[in-house]
Design goal:
Radius of gyration: 19 Å
Largest sheet: 7 strands, parallel
Structural class: alpha/beta
Shape: globular
Helix content: 25-40%
Strand content: 15-25%
Number of strands: 10
Order of helices and strands: EHEHEHEEHEHEHHHEEE
Number of helices: 8
Length: about 290
């Protein structure tokens, strides 16, 4: 009998919630085995308990800014499923915010560590595994419309996402000879806890006043884009950014001057879904 074909596998960082979790669910439905990395161990336990994956799902608590943790995540996929086909560098935080004159340098550096260094580390170790496997692969990075606009988000966050877009392009050229495709997906206002922070109406104002497309952006919509980039249907697509923003960029966003204007009155650090509480310092006038 011919040997059984190996089931394709993927690593998803920040897979405990939001876009990450929606992508995990979609890739499992598509028949892939998935290793999830997330700093929030409680979310990981929920994922394993709630998803029926027939032994095709693994979870590892990781700090995505740690090289040892990211290497271990990729190793887990190779050892568990015989190789790595898809790397989704998705983990991210809102990070440092406030007027540039008031931001703390450690919070700035922490934002880059989570949002930018993690993509470098994920790309590095995924590429090593894919090259060793000899069958190519797909690396997908979560960027943002904030990476292409001066009005799409806080300064540190926007700068990290611009870096993600640049790294996507440079590594796509380098890795093409190994048949490893590298692409980015840039969401707009997506209805997840990371964006609305318990205030669902927050994203509705974006949709009603800034986003041309009438429907609310969902994590599942981004997961569909990632699934396409992970599949052979996008086999000739590399080094590009897929905008999934409901037409926001086409309408020239000014998010900072709209719903993010309140960030000018405070400074601090937003840790997203990591389980760590946000740090907020109110600024006084003058």
């Amino acid at each position: 009998m011919p040997p059984t074909e190996r089931v394709r596998s993927a690593v998803v960082t920040g897979g405990g919630g939001g876009i990450g979790r929606a992508t995990v669910e979609r890739l499992l439905r598509d028949g892939l085995s998935v290793v999830v990395g997330d700093l929030n161990a409680d979310r990981g336990a929920e994922l394993l308990a709630e998803l029926d994956a027939d032994d095709r799902l693994r979870f590892l608590r990781v700090d995505v800014s740690s090289e040892d943790d990211m290497a271990a995540l990729v190793t887990l996929a190779v050892e568990s499923f015989g190789g790595l086909d898809v790397m989704f560098n998705n983990a991210g935080i809102g990070g440092a915010f406030g007027p540039i004159t008031e931001q703390d340098v450690d919070e700035w550096d922490a934002t880059f560590a989570v949002n930018m260094r993690s993509v470098f580390l994920g790309t590095k170790h995924a590429a090593r595994a894919m090259i060793a496997g000899g069958h190519g692969g797909s690396i997908i990075n979560t960027a943002s419309i904030a990476g292409s606009s001066g009005g799409g988000g806080p300064q540190a966050y926007s700068a990290t996402k611009a870096g993600v877009l640049s790294l996507t392009k440079t590594t796509s050229v380098e890795l093409a000879a190994h048949r490893i495709r590298v692409n980015a997906v840039s969401p707009g206002a997506i209805y997840t806890e990371l964006l609305h922070r318990g205030r669902p109406e927050f994203t509705d104002s974006w949709r009603e006043q800034i986003q041309p497309w009438p429907d609310r952006g969902t994590a599942e919509a981004i997961a569909d884009v990632v699934a396409w980039l992970a599949s052979d249907e996008s086999r000739f697509v590399t080094g590009t950014e897929v905008l999934a923003d409901g037409g926001v960029m086409a309408a020239a966003p000014r998010l900072v001057d709209h719903d993010l204007a309140h960030l000018r009155t405070m400074s601090g650090m937003a840790w997203g879904n990591t389980g760590r509480s946000a740090e907020v310092r109110r600024l006084t006038d003058g």
